[in-house]
Sequence to fold (367 residues):
Amino acid sequence: MNSEKPIILVVGARPNYMKIAPLYAELEARGVNQKLLDTGQHYDEEMSKVFFRDLGLPVPDISLGIGSDSHATQTARIMVEFEKICNKLDPQMVIVVGDVNSTLACTLVASKMNIRVAHVEAGLRSWDRKMPEEINRIVTDSLSDILFTPSIDGDQNLIKEGVPKEKIHFVGNIMIDSLFGILDKCEESEILRKLSLTDFEYGIVTMHRPSNVDNLGNFSSIVEALEHVGRICKLVFPMHPRTEKNARNMGLMVRIEQIPGIEIIGPQGYLDFMALMKSAKFVLTDSGGLQEEATVLKIPCITMRDNTERPITISEGTNRLVGSKKEEIINGIEELINEDYGDLSPPKYWDGQAASRIADIIVEEIE
Ligand code: UD1
Fold:
């Protein structure tokens, strides 16, 4: 099938690429007329381009080259440019994923132009409106015409918010499609050898949430926890640009660098990061996606947040919330570090087939 009017698939920031790649491949296999649009919210090689390569995504048909700015400016600039593209291409549907500013901006534009919006990863709620992503999720879901949920709590949240049942499709977690796709290739990564790491003898640290890295009190408390944990276990810390900038401005960078056994590296591509993750003893993070990946990989995940929009990673996975206080972080790591999750089965439909389910529904919905 190759319908005349295209559908546009939107990516913008790092956590989007692994959610679009499997869907792009499934739609391509079904002959759908699709255009890949990159807003350029993330622009550094390691935050963006390397993921296109690792995930087998083609060069985008359209690149908006927006870059970073304040939330309002970034969102507004994406909207202005995306509206021009919609006028030019006259798409019949826009597919957005996740909860970044690009997701919100393109949803707003499309829905005001009466173009149907499909949201992949719908229904997740942290119930914390201080998170920019929560605002993006709420607005995107309330405007979307087709809502694809990764877990059943997503359906429940949407129904409570009054979304008609027929708009909601429980299809599973598309990120896990990408994860299964890369796992066999991890052998090709040189990262463990380069960093002289031994399997299951190190922890991975990632953080970039404003609540942790824009707040001196929380950031300092996390650094104190790392100083303690560094004595127990080797740590690998792929540092997000926001985290690095703030660590330097707050005078914390030197302290982090001096932690014994810590390896600070830049943001990693998908292949190298998953190779690191697959053989890690635990992850200490404030990311959303890592909570899910750790659950499927059966690795303890200690999450430095007070809430999560992915509660199924706690009830059916390896995740524990510890907040940003030093003692809680240390206790969480000490309690979970040797936990054996060998018998755990992943949540329903976290099976590598989510993209195929989504593509079947999209094909039914388009002209
Ligand atoms: C964004 C998403 C967040 C996601 C995260 C993953 C929103 C609201 N937030 O947050 O949900 O978890 O991406 O990375 O959409 N920077 C670079 N190079 C880049 C991109 C950013 O140096 O390629 C710098 C920017 O200049 C800025 C900082 O990193 O100072 C933060 O980037 P920004 O795009 O504002 O948001 P993230 O914190 O990355």
